[in-house]
Amino acid sequence: MVRIGVVGSGFMAETHLEAYDGIDDAEVVAVTSPNTAASFVETHVPGADSFSSVEAMLDDADLDAIDICSPTPTHRPVVEAAAERSIAVFCEKPIAGSLGDADAIAATVSDADITFMVGHVLRFFPQYEAIKETVEGGGIGSPGVGRARRLSPYPEWGHGNWYAEDSGGVLLDLVIHDFDFLRWTFGEVERVFARRTRWEGAEHAHATLRFENGSVGYVEGSWALPPDEELQSSIELAGDEGLIELGSNDPALRISRAGESTAESPIAADGYRRELAEFVDCVQTGETPSVGAAEATEALRISLAAIQSASRGAPVSLSEVGQ
Amino acid sequence: MTTPIGICSTAHLHSHAYATILDSLETAEFVGVVDEDPERGESFATEHDVPLLDEAELFEEAAGVAVCSSNADHLRWVRAAAAAGVDVLSEKPLSPTVSDAAEAVEVAEAADIALGVAMPLRFSRPVRRAKDALESGDLGSLRSITGTNRGQMPGSWFVDPAESGGGATMDHTVHIVDVVHWLTGQRVAEVYAETDTRFHDIGVEDVNVLSMCLDDGTTFSLDGSWSKPNEWDTWGDATVELVATDGVVSVDCFAQTFKHTTEAGIQSVYWGDDANEGLIEDFVEAVETGRDPETTGRDGVDAVAVVEAAYESAERGEPVPVEYTL
Questions:
Q1: What 8-state DSSP symbol labels residue A98?
Q2: Is the Cβ of B235 closer than 8 Å to some Cβ of chain A?
Q3: For residue B319, is the peptide bond before it cis, meaning its omega torsion is within 30 degrees of 0?
Q4: Nearest Cβ partner for A208 among B211, B213, B228
């Protein structure tokens, strides 16, 4: 049994808890958060211990691993605290908000020789994994144009509105998923040109990518949908021998009653469960997770290039980022 | 009392669509076709049961013509029609260069003939509803636009730069640019382009991915690539999504389809209203009443200006401001 302490008590912590529910070899035994751990535990994982400091949880909860679901600026210090105590770490994306922090994390986890994985969950969504396999198998031939969209209302759920201040905006917090996936399927990115527009309570951005192999991608991210709208995402990968298109499918299950209808896409294990299952397995076996500091840092680099480009109004090469 | 309309050149496949529409209109009489390719012209004339005429004869008969030649030849037909005092609806783009497009406008204005450009999306019913929604005021102010106009590689003269002036950027930029100009009342101010040849073994670009902004800073992205496989279920798409401060408007011009499967595969068949009908009806009425068509030569020049900036950006690897000459 892998004993897990969760850092954070927000939307991601809740999502991860649901995932751990279906992983036999994992047990969430502790949660830490500055103010709300106790009520969170009561609601979501009664029986677990609650803490208000990461260090206290690391020292007292007898953990095999922690799962960092707290805001991006906390990632590096929490990783360092866990590594000091040889405790394995799962860290939500992005790995960090800067290349400096990402590099520091990479060095820390390597030196401490702990299992370390970053939550680029899109790779673990069954449909995205199947798309990757189709591309690997030559299903589109040589890549031409890749298109990804991820649109949602503004994330009002963040504690203290941290999304506004510390998340890096849609180009880092939201579409890093798509930057990572396009890099994974189309290859290394050479340069990015991005445009971003922000207004009261919203943001919308668009990034154009040129890959080293000559193909082109474009990613659109939005926190500008009207409130109560569902998250929309889509991906299209076009190559010289085929085209893959994934949008929203009609739900596999829909139940309608007077005044209420629900739609579901039931699956044995969703992306979160699959990625956390891999993490738990690696903690037990000592194997290296498929998404570690290196992969996560490359995704971060694309996001940072996009942010720099949007500020400068000029294309930014990946090699220039952080200089 | 019908307005006599002719067709100049049948190099562009749309000539067939226009012929069918002209035949169906009560307000128009389809009087004939002239074609620089006699064999092709003969076959077209037979198919549509109209006379194959020579240039002089056609300009004698027609009060207005639809010019369906290759892009490079549009100007030459505009000059000929202007000399004969005949109104023109030119296929798009108006010309491959701003300078030729502007000359077409000048020639038309000097001869006092109407000059329109066949960018029919202004007549798409979903597009018109979107305009109503934007103008209602309750969507707030526009901040970002995403457009797509992907298609299959058309081959033929489209991939001969001497005839077309370029590939996907020349072919699939102006429709959505014109629609955006029309919907917003703004013009594209700057273009950053990523173009390449990735899908087909051709000498022109088939990747056309543009990142633009309008005069007022509204961001505007457009994918006008020839990226749809020949086996795709339809010819391509035309969509525009407008994100405003208080709402989002998403238009899919060709969403109204049914699925038809045969041993040849699965096709999506469009059943919505035909925007080309609106285009031709408008042109016929413009000829009859002496007014400008909905989309004028000047609108056509503006669209070509964006295309020119796109090519320059692709070459220089940086964003390029659009120069509007008229």
A1: S
A2: no
A3: no
A4: B211
Read off the pLDDT of residues A233-256 as tens digits, 9 standing for 90 and up: 999 999 999 999 999 778 899 999
Q: What does the pLDDT read at residue A167?
A: 72
Provide, as residue numbers in chain B, all residues whose Cβ is less than 8 Å from the Cβ of A142: 198
- Interface with A, mutate which of B149, B192, B210 (most A CBs under 10 A): B192
Which amino acid, A298? E
Query: How is chain A split among helix, strand and coil, in percent rounded to 5?
Result: 40, 30, 30
> Per residue in B223-263, pLDDT tens?
999 999 999 999 999 999 999 999 999 999 999 999 999 99
What DSSP designation does B172 have? S
B211 interfaces chain A, CB cutoff of 8 Å: yes
Q: CA B312 to CA A152: how far, in whole Å?
A: 35
Identify the residue whose tokens are 């309309």: B5
Indicate the burial class of A209 (C-beta count within 10 angstroms; 0-12, 13-18, 19 or more): buried
How many Cβ pairs closer than 8 A exist between chain A and B?
A: 98
Burial B237-262 (b: 16+ CB within 10 A, else e): bbbbbbbbeebbbebebbeeeeeeee
Q: What would the DSSP string read from start to end of B97-144?
A: SHHHHHHHHHHHHHTT--EEE--GGGG-HHHHHHHHHHHTSTT--EEE
* Both structure tokens of A26: 């994992």
Nearest residue in A to B250, CA atom: A225
> According to the model, what pLDDT value does residue A188 have?
98
Is residue A209 a contact partner of residue A232, using CB atoms and an 8 Å limit?
no
| Burial degree of A152 (CB within 10 A; 0-12, 13-18, 19+) | middle
Position A162 scores a pLDDT of: 64
Cross-chain CB nearest to B223 (options A196, A218, A314): A218
Q: Which three-class secondary structure state does DSSP give residue A244?
A: strand
Interface predicted TM-score (ipTM) of this complex, two decimals:
0.93
Match 């970002």 to its residue by tokens.
Answer: B144
Question: Which residue blocks in B136-274 are alpha helix, DSSP H?
Answer: 161-164, 168-171, 174-184
pLDDT given for residue B170 in this prediction: 98
Strand B320-321 versus strand B188-196 pairing type: antiparallel
What's the token pair of residue A43?
């609601």
Q: Report CA B212 to chain centroid distance, whole Å.
A: 19
The number of helix segments (H) and strand segments (E) in chain B equals 11, 14
CA distance B148 to B209: 9
Find how far residue B304's CA is from the centre of its chain.
11
Burial class for B167, CB neighbours closer than 10 Å (0-12, 13-18, 19+): buried
Q: Report CA Rg, chain B.
A: 19
> What are the respective helix, strand and coil percentages of chain B, to the nearest 5?
40, 25, 35
Q: Using pLDDT thresholds of 50, 70 and 90, give the confidence band for residue A166.
A: low
